[in-house]
Amino acid sequence: MSKKGRVLVAMSGGIDSTVVAMMLHEQGYEIVGITMKTWDYASSGGSKKETGCCSLDSINDARKIAVEKGFHHFIVDIREEFGDYVIDNFVDEYIAGRTPNPCILCNTHIKWSALLKRADAMDCEFIATGHYAKIKHENDRYFVSKGVDPRKDQSYVLWGLSQECMARTIFPLSDLTKDEIRQMAFDWGYEALSKKPESYEICFVPDNDYRGFLKRRVPGLEESVKGGMFVDRSGNIIGEHDGYPFYTIGQRKGLGGGFLTPMYVTEIIPQTNTIVLGESDELLKNALLVGEMNHQKYTQIPENQELVTMVRYNDRGTLSTVKKISDSHYDIEFKANVRGIAPGQSAVVYEGEDVIAGGIIQKR
After folding, report:
1. What are the angstrom distances between the C-alpha of 98 and each of 212, 249, 335, 361?
2. 155 and 348 in contact (C-beta within 8 Å)?
3. Are 31 and 21 in contact (CB under 8 A)?
């Protein structure tokens, strides 16, 4: 075994995870590559050609690098555990009138668990991924911190990681920008890889049509929710919609016409199949309730201290104070109005660059 240690590298076939494997290999680590098959696109019924981390092309790209660099590579089928948990939750959340973030759920409950399980089986001390974030260790606590590239920082989607997971995780891209990663791949002779486009789609909805996915996944759903009403904040009927699961907070397009001013989805009421529409300023809120809180930097969130809370990926964050309601529920009050807070999404609390805690936004 290498003096540096043995590392299990999650390889999707994309540029980020490939560069991670090559970096660690050059640094003297013993590398074991693993590609996780999370989803069979053919079973989704989508119309678009299979792309992304679960495609055969991506798996072959990952294996090719491993062969060229002379390290082991394995393909692990986790479709059953992924589907049962992540996809069922995705569907259930939309049926409940909320907007889920399956990538966060996968990171928290599936991906890291699967990696650690295989790392133990293969005698790997560490796991490494291509996330743009840092792992820090202070006062006997591990926590995620922002990567140096603000355009790519992924700390927001990693709030659910446990102390055990973070203690064994390496993020080699933490101090690099995307441009630098592409240049590294080019300099190593992988010109095609350096130009490989990024995918922002949900892996099991590669045509980016979640409404179509829901209709295919839940037979009869479309008919059962058809004919619901759009109402204004006073409850006046102002139109008819296609069914509440097919709308998200803040949505403007696809609401039909005839409104005197631009209208947005401001509330979803699944019990009555009702969508509340309002003008832009009705999306503004100054507080939220968060549940399922996971603590990272501290065992408890400092109260009466101004922190920054992000309510979506690439959100700039807003100054806020956090008050404990129960062991896992907290009130967050913002110093300025925040637009488009959506139940089911995540609220992540930061102290400077560091993740203090994160949880799921609840409906008040």
Report:
1. 17, 9, 25, 9
2. yes
3. yes
User: Is the pTM for the entire model greater than 0.90?
Assistant: yes
Q: Is 103 a catalytic residue?
A: no
The CA distance from 199 to 16, in Å, is 12
Catalytic residue among 53, 54, 106, 165: 106
Right CATH for 283-362 from 2.40.30.10, 3.30.1360.20, 3.40.50.1240, 3.90.180.10: 2.40.30.10
Give 240-299 pLDDT, tens digit per residue. 999 999 999 999 999 987 888 999 999 999 999 999 999 999 999 999 999 999 999 999
CATH number for the segment(s) 6-130+172-194: 3.40.50.620
The more confident residue out of 196 and 234 is 234
Catalytic residue among 53, 54, 124, 203: 203
pLDDT grade, residue 55 (50/70/90)? low
Written as one letter, the residue type at 346 is S
Which CATH code fits 225-278? 2.30.30
Q: Determine whether 106 is an active site residue.
A: yes
Query: Bridge partners of 133?
Result: 146
